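Hi R.,

Here's the chain you asked about this morning:
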Amino acid sequence: MFSLYMRGKRAKRQLVSTSLFAACLTVVAPLWAHAQNAPLSLTEALTLTANADPTATATNRRLAAADANIRQAGVRPNPSVGLEAENFLGSNPYNGLNSAEFTLTYQQPLERKSKRQARVGAATAEKDLVRAEGRARTWQAMTAAQVLWVEAAAAEAEIAVAQERLLLAERSQAEIARRVSAARDPLFAGSLANTDVANARIAIDQAKAKARQLKLQLASFWGGGADFTIDPAVLETTISLSGGPTLLETPDIEVLRAQQRVSTAQIRVETTRRVQDPTFSAGIRNFREDGSVAFLIGGTIPLNRFDRNQGNIDRTRAEAEAAAADIEVAERLRLRDIAAVTIRMNNAVEEVRRIDAEVIPQAEKAVAQVREGFARGGFTYRDVIGAQETLIAAKARRVEVLKIYQLDKAERDRLIGQWVPLIQSESNP
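And here is the predicted structure, written out as tokens:
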């Protein structure tokens, strides 16, 4: 009875657990499905790109090499052991080993601590440069991903324009077919209408293929496929810009500053090398003639008579000054480019506004008027097709201008460092 009771309790617990799991699945599954079907935002695309950067492995190994370089830079110079033999295998009393003298010495260069500190400082600066270069490579991949994301969104918008073109062409095809059947238009008018429909269908297929190819290129940054969507409505996010943007330190500038730190650290290294290190030596000498032993000590220090390392010091100072000049020029060029791209973006916003207000409404009105006149017999099929082509060209131009705006925005985001916070911090190699 007790065994049956325990089995019943376990079965009841399993049933409750299964019910809870099913209830959770009922709640989570729609959310997961929504997450799977939701359009890919720019932030998500750039985050995926930054997190899956294929250059991260190489950067981590370079950082490991830089750490080893730092350890090596702090190592003291090795001592040396020497052995000398004198007064043997000569003439008269020195023709054997009886008068020989053997000396065993131990020598240790006394390197100044400031030299090791300077080397470690230079190696640390070189590690900072490796880190900055790795971030710059990730930044470059993110910039390329943003451009592809914009182009993919524009391709999706081009599909919508192509579909509208097909809709207009099919409507005209039906109208022209009725007129041809009633012998009100020649047979070749129907053939031209059929050709226009065929071209519109081809344009849709090409636009879809282009969008898929661009999504595949974008997904290659994180090793994914084209099984995601991008909402073409993101192209509509346009604003007129005024005033100076908030600038962040971009990885490009980080690299230049790291190069400047390396050059500055090298100045200290070369300056410390100007002072020569003494060498201390101690030894023991054995006299074979009487078997006596004597100790000896000594030391040497090079004289700074000719080589004072001044050329290397001047070289590193010039390199540091050049690095500082590079940073100044880069900042100036950045401000110049930001101003130029901002003007282009504002011009694009104005063109889209005028297309929406002046071009597309008039083109749509012209299509309606030509269709009405065509139905009464006042216009030819060429007038209908021409009006439709004008409308489609206006909408295609609108998509093109929006694409130009978003591509300029990608360039502006790169210049101001908009997406720098998405770059991962250094991981442990």
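One quick note: Residues 113-181 form the longest helix (69 residues).

Cheers,
M.
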